[in-house]
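Thread amino acids onto this structure.
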């Protein structure tokens, strides 16, 4: 059963299309990553799914409720958890009071369990919270009523590495319980660990809909090599090397070719330092979905897209 079904969804702000004829589904029990650089339209889509924005055309259903039907969507929201990118908690109240308020609206049967995993200082006022503590409080409120569907916008922003891994493990366990999770991100490493499928958004349009392994195969690896003799010409000419840039005594590029060939070429150099990592999502877009420069970081907030 499709928990989320989006059909030709469009949100036109006049000067920009926040969502441009989007169509996709999210299945029951699936962890679905909604990916794209800042300004791609991720937040617009999420806010439209939750009825916070009205579509210009097209529609979507969430847990069977049409997003244009306010009464039906209100009933469905009892079974939905939501973690926005910008939490907006009242800074003068304690974390406990925030959770008590949400509990009065939707219940909190899993509050204690969640507070053992995510540990915001609930007795302190929000104004004393770090970004990570505020994010953990948001995660607790999103899941504490045991929803069927959880929608999150950049859920791990501000979490330290240990809490990020705790979050990833928690989401994997939620998938085993049958919870459907839909979240936006621009971090490939995060998506790799927990998602089943991804929808890839660019400038309001869905430019890819695929499983995680396919995405990672297309994305390749970012390689940064510094050699003792400063010679790295052979590396830059390998099949599968793109987006090459040079720096003192070294070279950086995206590699989508055969890894054994890369390792053989590295072995022929006097390597001082090498770093191999996931490429930024923007690089995946630029190579596989067009060569135009992605919108600059922060554009999504400025344009309310």
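Threaded sequence (305 positions):
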């Amino acid at each position: 059963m499709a928990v989320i079904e989006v059909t030709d969804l469009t949100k036109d702000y006049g000067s920009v299309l926040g969502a441009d004829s989007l169509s996709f589904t999210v299945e029951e029990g699936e962890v679905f990553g909604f990916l794209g650089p800042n300004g791609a339209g991720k937040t617009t889509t999420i806010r439209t799914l939750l009825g916070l924005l009205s579509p210009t055309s097209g529609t979507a259903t969430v847990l069977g409720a049409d997003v244009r039907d306010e009464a039906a969507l209100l009933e469905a929201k009892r079974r939905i958890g939501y973690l926005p990118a910008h939490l907006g908690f009242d800074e003068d109240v304690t974390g406990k009071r925030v959770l008590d308020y949400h509990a009065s609206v939707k219940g909190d049967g899993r509050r204690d369990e969640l507070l053992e995993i995510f540990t915001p200082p609930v007795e302190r006022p929000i104004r004393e919270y770090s970004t990570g503590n505020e994010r953990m409080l948001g995660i607790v409120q999103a899941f504490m009523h045991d929803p069927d569907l959880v929608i999150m916008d950049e859920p791990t922003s501000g979490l330290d590495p240990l809490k990020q891994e705790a979050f990833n493990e928690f989401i994997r366990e939620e998938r085993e319980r049958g919870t459907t999770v839909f979240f936006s991100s621009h971090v490939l490493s995060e998506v790799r660990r927990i998602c089943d499928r991804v929808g890839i958004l660019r400038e309001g349009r869905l430019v890819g809909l695929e499983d995680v392994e396919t995405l990672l195969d297309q994305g390749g690896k970012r390689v940064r090599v510094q050699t003792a003799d400063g010679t790295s010409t052979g590396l830059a000419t390998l099949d599968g090397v793109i987006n090459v840039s040079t720096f003192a005594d070294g070279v950086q590029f995206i590699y989508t070719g055969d890894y054994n060939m890369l390792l053989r070429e590295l072995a022929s150099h006097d390597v001082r330092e090498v770093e191999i990592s996931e490429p930024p999502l923007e690089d995946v877009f630029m190579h596989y979905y067009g060569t135009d420069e992605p919108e600059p970081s922060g554009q999504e907030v400025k344009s309310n897209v």
